[in-house]
Amino acid sequence: xxxxxxxxxxxxxxxxxxxxxxxxxxxxxxxxxxxxxxxxxxxxxxxxxxxxxxxxxxxxxxxxxxxxxxxxxxxxxxxxxxxxxxxxxxxxxxxxxxxxxxxxxxxxxxxxxxxxxxxxxxxxxxxxxxxxxxxxxxxxxxxxxxxxxxxxxxxxxxxxxxxxxxxxxxxxxxxxxxxxxxxxxxxxxxxxxxxxxxxxxxxxxxxxxxxxxxxxxxxxxxxxxxxxxxxxxxxxxxxxxxxxxxxxxxxxxxxxxxxxxxxxxxxxxxxxxxxxxxxxxxxxxxxxxxxxxxxxxxxxxxxxxxxxxxxxxxxxxxxxxxxxxxxxxxxxxxxxx
Length: 337
Description:
By secondary structure, the protein is of the alpha/beta class. The protein is 36% helix and 20% strand. It has helices at residues 65-80, 116-124, 133-144, 202-206, 208-221, 225-231, 237-244, 249-277, 293-304, 326-336; strands spanning 7-8, 29-35, 39-46, 55-60, 85-92, 95-96, 102-104, 127-132, 152-157, 161-167, 170-172, 281-285, 316-319. The longest helix is centred in the C-terminal third of the chain and has 29 residues, at 249-277.
């Protein structure tokens, strides 16, 4: 099945560089950079080839803006591997305005107000497009996941939670560029404080960080003594998923309890989005994709158990076929269009 043709509702202004549409040098690449709360994932695609990654590279995310620009440039050059860079797309978590400038980024405060595109263009001497990371993941889904879906909610589960919306085949940005940011909708009034300053945001419980928080709650209640003994304290998210794949049945049961709670919180947000938007497809991307059916089956079951879905119909819920690289690939595809 061929990907259906999609078009953004608006074109973000790009930093001045080589004229849009000018021929790329032979062998040139387009680079996509996905900036997460803990790591940068970069990849390159052929400027004149099919939309599939050619090379990938992952590096830790620096906290300061200056260090981030240098690291982004370094990753871009690594994945280009000596080829000319025609364009660069950058996906950044948070509220990215219509000029591509982060206005709020709870998990990456060092970039707020920084014109990442302009600075990176100076460093790499090519056109740069900056967008929200989950918008990038949604675009990758629309262009490369063979879904035949024109109405898609893309949710990125990583350090925090991002989102992107494709409605009737168009990437939706909203009046200010901030549409599709579900991570900060309140699902637990009076709950834990989020990095954004609010209490009870969806990402407090349903992100990778949230999985660790749920494990800490379970440890405090005395529900996971084997995991606490194994990891010398409350396990973090990766330790929970590792334990869920353990050969030890008792340890696996304890981890499963934490994952069930996590899937329940993920389902709360997905149900809200489905009731609001009635999508054909909910596409999950981000670091959690690496866990595959360990998470996905539980999320599907938790969503299906809710009786108040739109018209009683549950949409497809899938992990991105692109895997954890969905954001980086979408950034490259947005830059290449």
